Amino acid sequence: MTVINHQQDVQNLTLTFVVQFDADIERVWQIWEDPRQLERWWGPPTWPATFVRHEMVPGGESRYYMTGPGGEKSAGWWKTTAVSAPTRFAFEDGFAGEDGEPSGFLGSTSCTVTLEDLGGRTRMTTVTHFENVEQLQEMVKMGMEEGMAQAMGQIDGILAEPAPQAG
User: Fold this and answer.
1) Average pLDDT rounded to a whole number, residues 2-7
2) Does residue 1 surpass a pLDDT of 60?
3) Cβ 65 vs Cβ 50: under 8 Å
4) How far apart are CA 11 and CA 149, in angstroms?
5) What pTM was estimated for this model as a whole?
6) What sections of the chain are H helices per DSSP?
7) How far is CA 41 from CA 60, 130, 144, 152, in A?
8) Is the peptide bond between 86 and the residue preceding it cis, with omega within 30 degrees of 0?
9) CB 26 within 8 A of CB 159
């Protein structure tokens, strides 16, 4: 994985990651679309994710939890707002309670993922938009920036494996 850009922009309330992979766009799309592949990298290595629901269609909902090294759990949710396979999708994201439903803790963010075909390689840009400066600062303080970098660092290993067969 080659990180091209990693930027926190307080003025525009965004956190952006731009990375490149030695895999074609369809293969990179799979790591988002397939919940078994997604859970292998969504979350830092010490906080692996488990997706109990993943509907990557407009209006679809996803529910997941991450398990920490001491067995503690942190749950989250997504609501997919746009899908244009295999180049773009967007979702709302937030914390969930023990029941897996949105808790309202720290509000929600919106994330847009764009994949760009570079002739056998793929550039992935993720832009997270925050509601306000306080939310951005609190999430960064909680480790979101480092966690995303660590999470994305796991993708190359998944992409190096043969793509799972559909069906």
Assistant:
1) 75
2) no
3) yes
4) 21
5) 0.91
6) 25-33, 35-38, 133-141, 144-152, 155-159
7) 21, 22, 14, 7
8) yes
9) no
Per DSSP, 134 falls in state H
> Any residues with CB less than 8 A from the CB of 12 and at least 6 apart, and which?
none
For residue 165, tell me if it sits in a domain: no
What is the tally of structural domains in the chain?
Answer: 1
Please report, for the domain that includes residue 70, its CATH number. Answer: 3.30.530.20
Q: How far is CA 156 from CA 6, 98, 119, 124, in A?
A: 17, 31, 17, 12
Do the Cβ atoms of 50 and 39 come closer than 8 Å?
Answer: yes
Whole-number Å distance between alpha carbons of 127 and 125:
7
Distance from chain centroid for Cα 65 = 13
Closest listed residue to residue 22, CA positions, set 161, 128, 147, 165: 161
Range of the structural domain that residue 59 is part of: 2-140+147-159
Residue 15 CB coordination number (10 Å): 23
Q: Which secondary structure element, helix H or strand E, spans residue 64, and what is its range?
A: strand 61-67
In angstroms, the CA 152 to CA 45 distance is 10
Q: Rounded to whole angstroms, how far apart are CA atoms 123 and 127?
A: 13
* 3-state DSSP assignment of residue 99: coil
Q: Are the C-beta atoms of 94 and 109 separated by less than 8 Å?
A: yes
pLDDT reported for residue 154 = 92
Residue 126, token pair as written in the block: 């993720």
